Amino acid sequence: MKMAARPELQAPPEIFYDEAEARKYTSSSRIIEIQANLSERALELLALSDDGVPRLLLDIGCGSGLSGETLSGNGHHWIGLDISQAMLNVALEREIEGDLLLGDMGQGLGLRPGVIDGAISISAVQWLCNADKSSHEPRLRLKAFFGSLYRCLARGAKAVLQVYPENLSQRQLIVSSAMRAGFAGGMVVDFPHSSKSRKEYLVLTCGPPSLSAAALPKAKGEGESCSDDDSSGDEEAQVVSVSDRHRPKKRQKLNKKVKGREWVLRKKEQMRRKGNIIPPDTKYTGRKRKARF
Amino acid sequence: MRLLTHNMLSSNIKGVSSGFPLRIEVEKVVEKQVEMNADFLRNMFPKIEWKAFAYAAKALGYSDLPEEADSSQLNSQDFLQKFHHALLELHLEEGVLICPETGRRFPVNRGIPNMLLHEDEV
Ligand SMILES: C[S@@+](CC[C@H](N)C(=O)[O-])C[C@H]1O[C@@H](n2cnc3c(N)ncnc32)[C@H](O)[C@@H]1O
């Protein structure tokens, strides 16, 4: 199967997300499911106190309102911002409960200071890494975005931004822009070993260090029992959270805990039994990689 | 757009120092009933700029809000009802938001304010 080119490389967002693309957000059960899962996870990482009080949240790049529906479903009020009128039209059709704004996050969010209880963003912020107009300078647009996000959030509030950076330098650009704006936090990577399910969430806390000293939430599947038993359990239990630039060394070490050959062989056998086509076992199966891989 | 959002929104045109509150020109208002949640209202109250809120409600044709409010009033059902109605049930459907400093107009169509800035405003 040929990989589709990254949307970010095809056209500016307000062009790429045209009526045809927006339509997929009501017609494609695959897209709908992915958006819903990402939003649920983002809300979970937002870790709002479970006192049952509805919060005022922000959905940045709210698009068709699928992610917003997750927020409403959990009883919260939200304001959504998107640059694509076509996507917002779909949100209107969907009769979402949040308020919508047509706007460009790269121009900064025009919101009063300290009023928002939390923010999520699903698959949107990496768009800022592209210069779609001659006047666009990704660094400045990221700075305007994160600066304004920091200001409008209440002290101690969090932002969880699920992103698809194209490469390491984009990831660094996004993370460092957030840190420069004053946020604390880092990336939580769910399913880091799976090219399909791997998802990155930039988890940010706003406010004085005392408030934001709390550790990053665990990546998905990183179980309570962080045992050395590599042959135990399913793939999920193996997942490790990476990053948090304040503690890179420790995290990277964790990441090195890879599965053994036995585990791989067993997993491959399982997949064969399910009828999947799996490459034959060779001496290379499950071998150790060079440290710098 | 509800007045909840209007109360948070400000004009962020480059060089503007007080972009709040955006003035409102109304073409069409719609009302949608939603259930009241007193906890949410109590939580929001300290964040609301009341003067701007009362102004906006009036602009949308609702003048039952007091000019000023303090948190002791949150114990009154009657006050909560009015607060709730103005905050969450009135929608500016068609109209214009206007930057108080520059007079720049942000059109509102089908309830969505167009806050996109021109290049020279960034
Ligand atoms: C993958 S879609 C996410 C859709 C959304 N979560 C939903 O539930 O439909 C990414 C969205 O980010 C928006 N976007 C991209 N760049 C943006 C920008 N600079 N400002 C605001 N929104 C932007 C796109 O228009 C698109 O709707």
Automatic annotation (TrEMBL), chain A:
Q: Does the keyword Cytoplasm apply?
A: yes
List residues of the 18S rRNA (guanine(1575)-N(7))-methyltransferase Bud23 C-terminal domain: 204-291
Q: Which GO terms describe its molecular function?
A: rRNA (guanine) methyltransferase activity
Biased composition, Acidic residues: where in the chain? 225-237
| Any single GO BP term | rRNA (guanine-N7)-methylation
List every stretch annotated Disordered: 215-293
Q: What family classification does the UniProt entry report for this protein? A: Belongs to the class I-like SAM-binding methyltransferase superfamily. BUD23/WBSCR22 family.
Q: Which protein, by its recorded name, is this? A: 18S rRNA (Guanine-N(7))-methyltransferase
Q: Which UniProt keywords apply?
A: Cytoplasm, Methyltransferase, Nucleus, S-adenosyl-L-methionine, Transferase
User: Compositionally biased, Basic residues: which spans?
Assistant: 246-259
The main place the protein resides is cytoplasm
Q: Which GO terms describe its cellular component?
A: cytoplasm; nucleolus
InterPro entries attached here? Bud23-like, Bud23_C, Methyltransf_11, SAM-dependent_MTases_sf
Q: Which PANTHER family match?
A: 18S RRNA (GUANINE-N(7))-METHYLTRANSFERASE-RELATED, METHYLTRANSFERASE-RELATED
| Subcellular localization, as worded in the UniProt entry | Cytoplasm; Nucleus
Enumerate the spans annotated as Methyltransferase type domain.
Answer: 58-159
From TrEMBL, chain B:
What GO MF terms are annotated?
A: protein heterodimerization activity
> Which CDD domains does its entry note?
Trm112-like
Coiled-coil region: none
GO BP annotations listed: rRNA (guanine-N7)-methylation; tRNA methylation
* Alphabetical list of Gene3D superfamilies matching this protein: 2.20.25.10
Q: Which PANTHER family does the UniProt record give?
A: MULTIFUNCTIONAL METHYLTRANSFERASE SUBUNIT TRM112-LIKE PROTEIN, UPF0315 PROTEIN-RELATED
What family does this chain come from, according to its entry? Belongs to the TRM112 family.
Q: How does it assemble?
A: Interacts with TRM9.
Identification of the protein by name: Uncharacterized protein
Organism for this UniProt entry: Nepenthes gracilis (Slender pitcher plant)
